Amino acid sequence: MSIIDLPLEILCQIFQSTADFSAVNALARTSRALHSIWLANSPAIFFAVAVRALPNFSDAERLIAAQEEAHTAAGPNLAAPSLSRHERFLFNARCASAACKHWDEVCQVHNLANARGDNPALRPSERARFKRSFYHLWTLSTLSNTPSLRTQASEFLAACDPVELAGLDEIAIWAYGYNENEFGDSGLDFKDGTWNAALQMVDQYCAWDKENSGHRRVPVSGHEAPLSFWVFLDHTQHYLEWI
Fold first, then answer.
1. How many CB atoms sit inside 10 A of residue 99's CB?
2. pLDDT value for 75
């Protein structure tokens, strides 16, 4: 008995139980029949695997919810979204990866060999931290640029803990001063006014340098923190206790 002779429900469960998307892709490429099953059931398979395989799934899902709310708030005459929900999820994830790649290139974390030991390259845990803050900033931008959702933007920011605020602060500084908007056709232009409201909200809410703000930047040596960025790096996590 071949695997493709199994009932469709079982085959879908096999897809949904795979460890990651590389396994999904490998299974789908096994035969035309399995590839067709993947295409026909991709939304359900995608979200079943994404919950396990993607460390930032809840943050990415919150961004999608904000994007859908913003689209609905724009009015009934607006054209339907060109991407399905899982396609939008993948699009957002590609943007997050592109941003993380650029941040790594700007910071040149791999040059911190003395602080990072034998593995100075950017690590999966560090990429996950960066992407989480990236999703947070994008969510804040989406909410703050929709008049009916601006209260939600303030509530979202108020719900962030000190570590999340530190991540937003660092990614806002990067967005202001270091990114070159090299995200291909993703439309993520941090110099565009679309992002200004979110960047200003982060700056004003944190008020890091104002007396009695309740927040402060941690002065980390340049030997440990390239361009003073440290919140996302493994070897500087102990400084979180200072926030």
1. 26
2. 72
Calculate the CA dihedral of residues 62, 68, 157, 224 and round it to 10 degrees: 50
**Residue entry with tokens 């950017």:** 122
232: tokens are 């996302």
Look up residue 78 and give its amino acid.
Answer: L
Query: pLDDT category, 112, cuts 50, 70, 90?
Result: confident
Mean pLDDT of the chain: 84
Q: How far apart are the first and last CA of the chain?
A: 60
pTM for the model stands at: 0.84
- DSSP result, the chain: --GGGS-HHHHHHHHHTSSSHHHHHHHHTS-HHHHHHHHHTHHHHHHHHHHHH-TTHHHHHHHHHHHHHHHHHT-TTSPPPSS-HHHHHHHHHHHHHHHHHHHHHHHTGGG-HHHHTT--SPPHHHHHHHHHHHHHHHHHHHHHTSGGGHHHHHHHHHT--HHHHHHHHHHHHHHHHT-----TTS---TTSHHHHHHHHHHHHHH-TTSTT-S-------TTTSGGG--TT-GGGGGGGGG-
pLDDT class of 180 with cuts at 50, 70, 90: low
C-alpha span between 116 and 110 (Å, rounded): 8
